[in-house]
Specification:
It contains 10 helices and 7 strands. By secondary structure, it is of the alpha/beta class.
């Protein structure tokens, strides 16, 4: 299998995992997995609330800023974009999430919701150079190896305006939740990479970022990079 085929296969598996979740499909898991406290939190929706990364605490979207959310899911429907008055552009590999946004987001606010496209975070040819003030990507980096995320960063840098910022998160493998969460995600259909945070920081610094901010969470650590 070639590198491109391997990446396509991984993206497809992650997409299927989230299509099932957004569609509300039941997942048949082993009894020992369903007995995990983390599974019970996931099944009731409490886990996502607990581990979601508050990217706005690093950089809050501002009025009329163009913001791209990579791996957006249904972000526009659940985060306060209308309060921020920022212009939302989304991209996700889940066809179910994209369809939900296209159907419901214009009804919520057609002026702020600009578009959502289906595809990976590494392929941003749909967008012009120096177009966005802010690019966000939370909850998705853990599904891919570091060399893939290097491609993502290079693509993000092209579409960011000078002085714009990239906010993303990475799983902290030393977190008490990390191992059980990785097991759960594997059974849900998407293997995760537990890379040391030092390797993430080394990667970002190798791109000659002029500024790197961090904020630790219970499972993920947020990063804010500017070039």
């Amino acid at each position: 299998m070639s590198v491109s085929d391997s990446l396509s296969d991984r993206i497809d598996r992650v997409a299927k995992r989230y299509n099932r979740e957004y569609s509300g499909e039941a997942v048949d898991l082993p009894d020992e997995v369903e007995a995990m406290p983390l599974f019970r939190e996931w099944a009731t929706g409490k886990l996502q609330q607990r581990i979601a990364s508050p990217f706005w605490e690093i950089v809050k979207p501002k009025k009329n800023q163009r913001c791209l959310d990579l791996g957006c899911g249904v972000s526009f429907l659940i985060y306060p974009w209308t309060s921020w008055q920022a212009l939302f552009y989304g991209r996700d590999i889940s066809s179910v999430a994209c369809a939900a946004l296209k159907s419901r987001a214009p009804q919520l606010n057609s002026k702020l919701f600009k578009s959502v496209t289906k595809g990976g975070a590494h392929h941003l040819d749909d967008y012009e150079d120096d177009f966005f003030d802010l690019v966000i990507s939370t909850g998705v980096s853990c599904y891919y190896p570091l060399d893939y995320w290097e491609r993502v960063i290079n693509s993000v840098r092209r579409v960011l305006k000078p002085g714009g910022q990239f906010i993303f998160d990475a799983i902290d493998p030393d977190s008490e939740l990390a191992e059980d969460w990785a097991i759960l995600e594997t059974y849900l259909g998407a293997e995760v990479f537990l890379e040391p945070l030092t390797e993430w920081e080394k990667l970002v610094r190798s791109t000659r970022t002029s500024r790197l901010r961090t904020q630790a969470g219970e499972l993920f650590t947020l990063y804010g990079a500017r070039w």
